[in-house]
Write a structure and sequence with these properties.
Number of helices of chain B: 10
Largest interface: A-B, 46 and 37 residues
Oligomer: heterodimer
Helix content of chain B: 25-40%
Number of strands of chain B: 15
CATH superfamily of the largest domain in chain B: Stage V sporulation protein AD
Shape of chain B: globular
Strand order of the largest sheet of chain B: 1-2-10-15-14-11-12
CATH class of the largest domain in chain B: Alpha Beta
CATH topology of the largest domain in chain B: Peroxisomal Thiolase, Chain A, domain 1
Number of helices of chain A: 8
Distance between the termini of chain B: 20 Å
Number of domains of chain B: 2
Radius of gyration of chain B: 18 Å
Shape of chain A: extended
Number of domains of chain A: 2
Radius of gyration of chain A: 22 Å
Number of strands of chain A: 0
Structural class of chain B: alpha/beta
Largest sheet of chain B: 7 strands, mixed
Chain lengths: ~160, ~325
């Protein structure tokens, strides 16, 4: 029996369709609307925090981004530690996964999870288990885009 | 005695003289909580890791079953157990504590009935006087190993299932009062090419259908022979698929007498976080060794066919794009 998903035999293909007709579908539209509302709210809160730093601590619009991101990260890690971030995420979906809070959640949740295996091999070794691929391919795509930009500039720019 | 090509009959009809179950916080809120002997309201159960908590549940269930039967653990010839953690450490470490000769088994969520079939064979073959068999799973240790960190915010699809936190153990011997193990049908691996680990019900349903069909064929009986046929952890999705598969195959099944442990152990209306229902070794172990055996002792069920279903994939095989091989073992229990 072939095991690769692209090599289903006739019986398996038939069963796949049979099963699919009986599975509840992911509520995609509902999920998109929820993600839009929650994701947008997180960004709105971020904006409020940014104005707070600009108005009270003398930051400029350019450098207020750093303390704002740090504040959102702290809030996200705090909610992860309390064990509520995953519950919010089940409702919000991509709304909590895409902003920087989602990234903080991937790292802190893995760190909490592997505390029982010790600080070095457990927390240290597993902290980037979920976030690792994002960092690797994020860095690589940044590099690729930079190379393209450099080439365009070299050829005379746009 | 051999029966057909996949089954056997236990001529001496080993007796389940006692059984005991342990559950976690969500199981305590579920509809079967009254049939669970020991309930924990904290997933750590006073231990410093989820794995240790799972080991504790097996130890507690084993000791409770021995206490109910009034049997000393030194009298027990074999302890058979399985769980979902890598290298079945929960079972093996519990066996270290118990100090009973030990057979560790792995059949994923089918471990409960795999263990019961082996246990009944050992008693039937008069190899040992008392056999203790059980299985366990822990929601958090399973999530940690098979999916994402517990606190990671990933959105689960409606086909996903909730691994039951619990353990169920039963004690078998030659004679005594209690439900008797009549026969067993061992399952073959059935792989219908499903690759989605968030849709285990659909992956396992064909295995359950295959084993139940083989059981009817080998024993020359129909579904009306049993008061109840119960599957281990197909959940709402797999249960519906299995029912329709029986219809497609022209096998009549009484829908009221065909239930699923994963749907019984939780109230899906009140506990929406379980989605399609419970899964894991403890889904069948806790429901069958707790609630269903109690119903048999009360005389409400006379003939039970317990079919535990297992998905035999690993996180590694999933990442290597392998589909999910599934299995189901059926054990016939009568009062």
């Amino acid at each position: 029996m072939p095991s690769n998903k692209n090599n289903l035999n006739l019986e398996q293909q038939k069963y796949k369709d049979f099963a699919q007709q009986r599975e509840p579908k992911r509520p995609v539209l509902k999920n998109c609307i929820k993600a839009f509302i929650v994701g947008g709210s997180i960004c709105a809160v971020g904006q409020i925090i940014q104005y707070f730093y600009i108005n009270n601590f003398g930051y400029t619009e350019k450098n207020a981004g750093d303390p704002t991101a740090a504040t959102l990260i702290i809030i996200s890690i705090f909610l992860t530690g309390l064990g509520v971030y995953d519950d919010i995420a089940q409702w919000a979906g991509a709304g909590t996964a895409v902003p920087i809070t989602g990234f903080a959640n991937t790292i802190s949740s893995a760190a909490i999870e592997h505390r029982s295996e010790g600080y070095v091999l457990g927390v240290g070794g597993n902290m980037f288990k979920v976030a690792g691929p994002v960092i690797v391919f994020g860095t690589f795509s940044a590099f690729a885009v930079a190379v393209v930009k450099m080439l365009i500039n070299y050829l005379g720019g746009i | 005695m051999v029966k057909g090509s996949q089954s056997f009959i236990f001529d001496s009809q080993p007796v389940i003289i006692a059984s005991a179950t342990v559950g976690g916080p969500l199981e305590a809120e579920g509809p079967l909580s009254e049939d669970i002997d020991i309930l924990h309201d904290d997933p750590y159960m006073g231990q410093d890791s989820f794995e240790k908590a799972e080991k504790l549940m097996i130890e507690e269930a084993a000791m409770k079953a021995l206490e109910k039967a009034g049997v000393d653990k030194d009298e027990v010839g074999v302890f058979i157990s399985g769980d979902l953690i890598n290298q079945i450490i929960a079972s093996s470490f519990a066996a270290r504590t118990l100090g009973i000769p030990y057979l560790g088994i792995y059949g994923a969520c089918s471990s409960s009935m795999e263990g019961l079939a082996i246990a009944a064979s050992l008693v039937d073959g008069q190899k040992v006087k008392y056999v203790l068999t059980g299985a366990s799973s822990h929601n958090n240790s399973a999530e940690k190993q098979y999916r994402y960190p517990n606190e990671y915010g990933a959105q689960k699809p409606p086909t996903s299932q909730w691994t039951v936190t619990g353990a169920g153990v039963c004690l078998l011997t030659f004679q005594g009062k209690g439900p008797r193990v009549i026969g067993a049908t061992l399952g073959r691996i059935v792989d219908m090419g499903i690759t989605d680990p968030f849709n285990m019900g659909a992956a396992m349903a064909p295995a359950a259908v295959d084993t139940i069909k083989a059981h009817f064929r080998d024993f020359g009986i129909g579904s009306d022979y049993y008061d109840l046929i119960v599957t281990g952890d197909l959940g709402a999705v797999g249960h519906k698929i299995a029912l329709d598969k029986f219809k497609e195959n022209g096998i009549s099944i009484n829908e009221k007498a065909f239930l699923d442990c994963g749907m019984m152990i939780y109230d899906r209306e009140r506990q929406p976080q379980v989605f399609a229902g419970g899964s894991g070794c403890a889904s069948s172990a806790v429901t069958i060794y707790g609630h269903l055996l109690n119903e048999m002792r009360k005389g409400k069920i006379k003939r039970l066919l317990a079919v535990a279903t297992g998905a035999l994939h690993s996180p590694l095989s999933y990442q290597q794009k392998e589909s999910i091989p599934c299995i189901a073992h059926a054990v016939a229990i009568e009062m």
